[in-house]
């Protein structure tokens, strides 16, 4: 368990963006694994199994507890940040700027501040390596919506990172 | 933003996200999992889920359930043909005659309401439906406004 607990917790945390919920999900994942201990003990795919279960449980959790807010959140469109539109700089400049700071911490923070509708497909695409079609099937949304949400998520992430960098420079 | 910039940013974000190190799980995670496993292990078999029962008990309980089910099916098929059962049914129906009296009242009331509805006609129901829809839309609008207001304050 010690070997995989960070991996399971990271998977859940990046999807639900809430420490206590991610801990609960991780706990459930390991209890499920314990029930199948005999099958998993010598399996070479145990890490993949744990990651898949953590992903599915996180998605179930999100759909179960947050469905009621989806309607209201969707009404807000893309104005959740509230800030004025920024003319973005060349992406390579942001990347270079990030090199000089606590890059991982900044990205992690920015990722967790994204709304679930953008964060979840982004994480599934870039971190879990799922294809657009697989994400659409998992989230039960159209392929077009997945592509749009991921594009918006990248833009929002860029905006948040630029804001972080601007704040740091004072 | 240009198409080229989009592609570069996609590649950059992909590289950045894939390079993220794993987050540290809280210290309490392994402790709480172990505590739950220990608690489950202490729990007697009959308090656990059927899947966790010992195999002989699973077989015996399954056999018993199948026997009970078969007995019920046989009873349902055989009982109505017994004269004692018919007599008992008549006896019981005498006790619950008040139920039929009550049912008559409800049935009459229902028929009366149906007649009234027929008399009022379709326009009345269309109007009522529109009114209810309007009230529902207003509730939804007010709810959304309150939600947004609460969100803005936060």
Description:
The complex is a heterodimer of chains A (170) and B (154). With 170 residues, chain A is mainly α. Chain A has 9 helices and no strands. Chain A is globular and about 55 Å long. Chain A starts with a helix and ends with a helix. Residues 75-88 of chain A have low confidence and may be disordered. Helices cover 81% and strands 0% of the residues of chain B. Chain B is built from 6 helices and no strands. Chain B has helices at 3-18, 27-42, 55-78, 83-95, 97-120, 122-153. Chain A binds chain B through residues 1-2, 5-10, 13-14, 19, 23, 26-27, 30-31, 34, 72, 75-76, 88, 90-92, 94-95, 98, 103-104, 107-108, 111, 122-123, 126-127, 151, 154, 157-158, and chain B through 1, 5-6, 8-10, 12-14, 16-26, 28-30, 32-33, 36-37, 143-144, 147-148, 151.
DSSP helix count of chain B?
6
Gyration radius of chain A, in Å: 18 Å
Helical amount of chain A: over 70%
* Sequence stretches where pLDDT stays below 50 over 5 or more residues of chain A: 75-88
For the record, give the distance between the C-alpha atoms at the N and C termini of chain A, rounded to a whole number.
43 Å
* Category from helices, strands and their pairing of chain A: mainly alpha
Using the alpha-carbon principal axes, give the shape of chain B: flat
Strand segment tally of chain B:
0
The span between the termini of chain B is: 32 Å
Structure annotation, total helices of chain A: 9
Regarding quaternary structure, what we see is heterodimer
Shape of chain A: globular
List keywords for this structure.
heterodimer, A: 170 residues, mainly alpha, 9 helices, 76% helix, 0% strand, B: 154 residues, 6 helices, flat
């Amino acid at each position: 368990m010690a070997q995989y607990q960070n991996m399971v917790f990271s998977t859940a945390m990046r999807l639900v963006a809430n420490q206590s919920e991610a801990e609960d999900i991780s706990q459930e994942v390991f209890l499920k694994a314990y029930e199948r201990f005999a099958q998993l003990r010598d399996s070479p795919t145990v890490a993949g199994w744990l990651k898949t279960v953590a992903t599915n449980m996180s998605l179930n959790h999100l759909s179960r507890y947050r469905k009621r807010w989806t309607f209201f959140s969707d009404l807000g469109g893309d104005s959740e940040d509230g800030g004025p539109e920024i003319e973005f700089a060349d992406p390579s400049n942001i990347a270079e700027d990030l090199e000089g700071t606590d890059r991982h911490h900044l990205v992690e923070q920015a990722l967790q501040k994204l709304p679930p509708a953008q964060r979840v497909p982004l994480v599934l695409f870039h971190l879990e390596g799922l294809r657009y079609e697989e994400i659409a099937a998992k989230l039960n949304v159209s392929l077009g919506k997945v592509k749009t949400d991921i594009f918006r998520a990248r833009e929002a992430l860029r905006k948040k990172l630029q804001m972080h960098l601007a704040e740091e420079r004072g | 933003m240009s198409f080229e910039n989009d592609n570069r940013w996609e590649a950059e974000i992909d590289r950045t996200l894939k390079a993220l190190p794993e987050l540290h799980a809280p210290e309490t995670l392994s402790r709480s999992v172990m505590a739950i496993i220990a608690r489950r292990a202490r729990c007697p078999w009959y308090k656990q889920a059927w899947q966790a029962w010992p195999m002989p008990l699973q077989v015996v309980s399954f056999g018993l359930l199948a026997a009970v089910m078969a007995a019920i099916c046989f009873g349902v098929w055989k009982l109505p043909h017994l004269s004692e059962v018919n007599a008992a049914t008549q006896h019981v129906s005498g006790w619950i005659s008040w139920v039929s009296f009550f049912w008559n009242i409800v049935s009459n009331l229902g028929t009366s309401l149906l007649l009234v509805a027929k008399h009022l006609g379709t326009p009345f129901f269309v109007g009522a439906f529109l009114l209810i829809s309007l009230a529902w839309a207003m509730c939804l609008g007010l709810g959304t406004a309150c939600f947004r207001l609460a969100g803005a304050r936060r």
